[in-house]
User: Fold these one by one.
Assistant:
Number 1:
Amino acid sequence: MDKVVGLDQVMDRVTDGMTILFGGFCGVGTAITCIDKLVKKGVKDLTVMAVVATQPGGNFDLAPLFANKQIKKFICAHVGTSPEAVKAMKTGDLDVEFYPMGSWIEKVRAGGAGLGGVLTRTGLGTMVEAGKDKVTVDGQEYILEKPLHADIAFIKGYRADKLGNIEYRYAGLNTNPTVAMAADYTVAEVNEIVEVGQIDPQRVGTPAVFVNAIVQGKNFGEHVATYRELWTHSGQIK
């Protein structure tokens, strides 16, 4: 099965009020081409789940979605990297639901694995436990964190074969493999699309069974240039 589709075809699936899950961490391993298209489409009232808001300083990654008030609710571990998200939260235009970072990724993993939740001691005795069920196991008390699952997920890989096997590169292998499993429909944006058999099986980070569609993002040279310009401009590299 050839899962390569056009970006417009993927965007036809996205409607107002959807729950969307994004892979990546601080802008690295993020499906930036897909995000740009979502901004242009103007879908609104979205519930978005991502481990952090944007790359430090905002103005990239998910930042335009926050700035355009397209996101109604944000489920994350950290929001402070994005001035746009912080502003929307302060003005009451954005509802933010926080989880400890480890709990967030475990909730997503549970959503992908079909589990009823995960037990954790992280957050006991703090506001994190408010309103949540607690379970005692062998005399130890745990918070029951329920799974996170989305209508659609956008992940970012380095290469994909046409069947949908995804290869990641360096830090792109962050939340993406877990996120890929936790949605009804998973879209992989990649730098390069190759024929089946051209990716070493040992380098497959997400098997094809979890991927519904592959879209061509920036090629690798364009991708490197985009991030080099971003990080140079922000002073993160010289």
Number 2:
Amino acid sequence: MLRPALLLVALLAAFPAAAEIYSWRDKEGRLHYSDVPPPEGEVKTLRNARSTTAPSTPEAAAGETNGSTAGQAPANVPPGTAGTSNAPKTMADRELEFRQRRTAQAEAEAKAEKERADAAQRQRACEQARSQLAALESGQRIARFTNTGERAFLDDSSRMNEINEARTQVEQLCR
């Protein structure tokens, strides 16, 4: 017994919300609002019976005329740009913008992280080239392993070639 009564009350409460709302000016210029249109004169429909929401601003309400539907662009506005400047954004639009901002932020963070990693790697390579140059210029004996696995000490001409190569590496890596 209680359920049918609650259903009836809910239906009766929702019935006026589905009504159309009209706006018009009388002969004295006064503005009137009603759910019943006047018998004569120019009428503006503020909310259609099928519409679920009323216009959010008075400008939007004044812009709708009898027979117009929500979402239609005025004749002087290019397609795809209607309502983008003053209309409130829908939840889907806000969600899309949020996701785009989050994606852009993640890309920026990834790019910054990559740049930091590249800078750290360049710093390590620079330090390694400088230490190699310092070891070559120190004058101590340096040995290299040959292809057969034997140790071969650098002579003066080989040392100078290695020093020149190390200097070019330092110049390239330590800018």
Number 3:
Amino acid sequence: MTTVIHSVVLVDDGTAQEDAWIAFTDGVVAGRGTGEDWRALSVAEAIDGGGRVLTPGFLDIHHHGGGGAAYDDGAEAIVTARAAHRAHGTTRAVLSLVTASVDDLAARVAVIADAAERDATILGSHLEGPFLDVGHKGAHTASLLRALDAAAIERLVDAGRGTVRQVTLAPELPGGIDAVSRFVEAGVVVAVGHTNATYAEARAAFDVGATLVTHAFNAMPGIHHREPGPIVAAMADERVTLELIADGIHVHPDVVALAFAGAPGRIALVTDAMAAACAADGAYELGGLAVTVIDGTARLDSDGAIAGSTLTQDAALRLVVAGGLPLPDAVAALTTTPARVFGWEGRYGSLRPGASADAVLLSPDLRVQAVWVDGARV
């Protein structure tokens, strides 16, 4: 059965094509074109896009929950949080876990592995900790941060049964460079983050296989004219993608624009959302730490540190476009760029023929109107 969405502005592959159509068959993109050519197809359902914007489904490779639920809290919480973000266009996601004991993290990545078997839109887990610099811990429990060691790495990777996709670590810690190599050999993408790394230390991590920076500018040294730090090291390295939280709180909009200019095609927009995303202000918990959300900003009760966000991917899209970024570039930062981090080009984050039929229909002011996953409207 073929579904066609026609009369849209198709934003994909770095371009915006007016009066476009796309066809979905058996959960994949079967074809695309412009004008009335779709009428020659055998179509079970034709949807008039009315000149609205159609993009690939968004990927979020760093977020902790939403809809009042956190991914740390088990199978039901995972379902709740995924539904909340899916309604905002995030069709596929890597689920992030905050710092905990190795025992707890092993159990949690196993739960996510089970969830991924039931739900193909769950692409695996991201370990944000416990191998972080205590001086840049952000909203992580200091007492649970620990040294890098081979036994802990092996246990966590094994518990995920092939679904631990990403780990954030501070490469300057003792054993950090060796740990980067161990994770990469296990097929895990390594992100430099929550770190005090110098420019040279970050470059050393990239040279042994780290390819990502966790929420660039946050929980790491800033850019200094004599000490450029990990951000400049990443911008200068074509192998490295930089995550960015575009909520207007974590990073000033002008610095967001600076990042896109400094690393064109290598910015992946992430939400770093916690349970309060798509939920009310109030009291929450993140990794065992008390958090209060006021006017959509989440901060630790203990010291006022930012504790994740309440961002959704569609809101991030609107912010960067309002800041002057061309729409095709903004969409790429939510789709093709994060997909490329994990080698998923042409499968997710794209509406090329043969890709998974995940799509988001947006109003002219970039509000979500409809979402499809594997060709089915959700």
